[in-house]
Amino acid sequence: MTAPARARTSDDLIRAEEPVLAHNYHPLPVVVARAEGSWVEDVEGRRYLDMLAGYSALNFGHRHPALIEAAHRQLDLLTLTSRAFHNDRLAEFAERLAALTGLDMVLPMNTGAEAVESGIKLARKWAYDVKGVPADRATIVVAADNFHGRTTTIVSFSTDETARAGFGPFTPGFTIVPYNDLAALEAAVDDTTAAVLIEPIQGEAGVIVPDDGYLAGVRELTRRTGCLFIADEIQSGLGRTGRTLAVEHEAVEPDVLLLGKALGGGIVPVSAVVARREVMGVLHPGEHGSTFGGNPLAAAVGTAVIELLETGDFQRHAAELGVVLRDGLTELVGKGVLGFRSRGLWAGVDIDPAIGTGREISERLMHEGILVKDTHGSTIRLAPPLTITGDELVSALGTLERALR
Ligand SMILES: *Cc1c(COP(=O)(O)O)cnc(C)c1O
To answer: What structural domains and CATH numbers belong to the chain?
Structure first.
């Protein structure tokens, strides 16, 4: 192998991926080489405001100094033990995550999908051991248009045909009801129901915010009927909506909370199932695990993330700028925007299809120095890092307005 004669351009690198990289994504044609805070820079040195923030994995921006420092410090001490042994970082991570979320016990995993899988296993075990559901009969009620990840069990209860088709046979034991419909949920819950699993705000579906009272209704219904409420806050959690958790907007506490994405500070994959003690207590040694889950590097970065959230500053900033975002988008309704939904620094914006698809608008914004990603059809999602300034946000909204003309 000879070294390339010259540095490869963005176009070279995009072409180079084609024959060697699985085609399971269709990225925007931008090749990012470095980043800091809310900004990324491509191979040619062009700068872009990152309004996607790694699907909310980068809530604290790129390379937040406190998170990078925590990672560096831990890299010099210890990176992996496996759970065969204890490591000196895990107790503090679990203590502080439990305190932050108001729950009792933590099951550390790595990716979001693993947290969801773990939550499903936990709920089933609880159903058999505590609720007394007959063996192999437990069901979990989920919402249509959900996104909980990509494993075979999780796509088994997806309603997105692109995510499912060709991947069967599927895992049984799931009942799908419309989102934001308490009557449908009530009708679906029975003696075999282990849990109701929902996103408090549906992210991939286009930032679908349920009606006021829905989350409180799910809480009341699950408590009354004796099943668990599992909140998947992998995308909605950790400051994004202006609160630590999206369920806080209705002062609701789930039995089981799923976290991921931003928990790893944009550095390492860190996810967790956080639950009440009576629920998590059904797991015993050997029944579940992960080689990398709870590794000291992940625990150190995760603890530093929790420390940032403990101040409340990011949540406050997201709530304050959330008003700027909402007001700015309200101005655009009728000017290329058909409608939008937002909470905190998170919005799903439906673009008039006459102007372009979500993809076309995303490419137009990319050429104007703003990175976003379409979700479905003509909907784009805005989810900037919570480090974005008011001026940057106002400027981005101005760019969006021009792109829609
Ligand atoms: C991203 C996401 C997941 C899956 O997380 P991965 O880390 O990609 O496996 C699960 N649930 C929700 C709500 C998500 O947004």
So the answer is: 10-63+313-404 (3.90.1150.10), 65-310 (3.40.640.10)
